[in-house]
Design a protein that fits this description.
By secondary structure, this protein is of the alpha/beta class. It has helices at about 20-35, 45-50, 70-85, 100-105, 105-115, 160-165, 180-190, 205-210, 215-225, 250-255, 265-285, and strands spanning about 40, 65, 90-95, 120-125, 170-175, 195-200, 230-235, 240. It holds the Pfam family TPP_enzyme_C.
Length: about 300
């Protein structure tokens, strides 16, 4: 295998991501922090399109593309094969979308978490099956319009981080490229831990969310600032730490950026605000006062 320096780009230019794609930007930072001694597992997803087919992958590390439901099982097998070769230092990284994580791959993911398999699982959460026509997933938020829910999704978004924390895994966290220092710190922390680790990164989709071409970063920040996507981490399933405690925006400001909420009634906007408030209150009950950061 080609020897790479950590300073070399792990994600090459010329890949197939859409202009303004937050997923490609997020993956670039993940890969840069993981370094060249890493092997990736990438199921069918937007990331699989970005990575491209072997041997012409845009990633400068080995990539295995399994079936959509089998990412965690494939990563488990890869980890054990590397360990058998005496390559325990090589990281096994999963880069999967929300369809292959929240939905189709959840059974496999839960099993790997229960076994505490040594891998870093990164869910690139764009809240839908975006590369096949923007259908809804169980990560799609309530009332969001997709090609399969044109009148708006009738159910809430699944709490993946809470589900994975309930497995008692060593590390589970949310992150956003809109808050880059926090995201990079969490990647480094997860890399240093052994056992099962999972990061869920919110990656606004320009086309699927109906954003302005340059609106991905703004949406990523607004999601956190209104509390729709809180930044927190959970150690060993019990210790919850909040990483961003401010809520300077109303949910309505976040929704206004996105065409998938166009025409939403005032009562539905109020309902979404109430849901976000309820989710925030749930999170606050799990966090000790000393774990809330004192931000200016």
């Amino acid at each position: 295998m080609e020897t790479l320096d950590r300073r070399d780009p792990m994600l090459c230019s010329g890949h197939a991501a859409c202009p303004g794609c937050m997923e490609a930007l997020s993956a670039r930072h993940v890969l840069a922090r993981m370094g060249p001694d890493t092997m990736a597992v990438i199921p069918p997803s937007c990331m699989a399109i970005i990575a491209g087919p072997q041997p012409y992958s845009s990633l400068r590390i080995p990539v295995y593309q399994p079936t959509l439901e089998a990412s965690a099982a494939a990563a488990s097998g890869l980890r054990r094969a590397l360990d058998a070769q005496g390559r325990g230092q090589t990281q096994v990284l999963v880069l999967a979308g929300d369809g292959g994580t929240y939905d189709i791959g959840l059974q496999c993911l839960s099993s790997a978490a229960e076994r505490n398999e040594d891998m870093l699982y990164v869910c690139l959460d764009n809240e839908g099956y975006m590369n096949t026509g923007a259908q809804k997933s169980s990560s799609t938020p309530h009332f969001a319009r997709t090609s399969s829910t044109p009148e708006g999704k009738p159910t809430r978004k699944k709490n993946l981080t809470g589900i994975m924390a309930a497995h008692g895994v060593p590390y589970a966290a949310t992150a956003s490229v809109g808050f880059l220092p926090d995201m990079l710190r969490k990647i480094e922390r997860a890399k240093a831990i052994r056992g099962f680790r999972i990061l869920t990164l919110l990656v606004p989709c320009i086309e699927g969310w109906g954003l302005e071409d340059s609106g991905g970063m703004e949406a990523a920040r607004y999601a956190v600032e209104c509390g729709a996507f809180p930044l927190y981490e959970v150690e060993d399933g019990t210790r919850y730490t909040l990483n961003y405690s401010l809520r300077p925006r109303r949910v309505a400001e976040y929704l206004a950026l996105q065409k998938r909420y166009r025409g939403l009634s005032a009562s539905d906007v109020d309902s979404l605000q109430s849901e976000v408030d309820q989710g925030w209150a749930w999170l606050m009950r799990l966090i000790q006062p000393e774990d809330v950061p004192a931000l200016p």
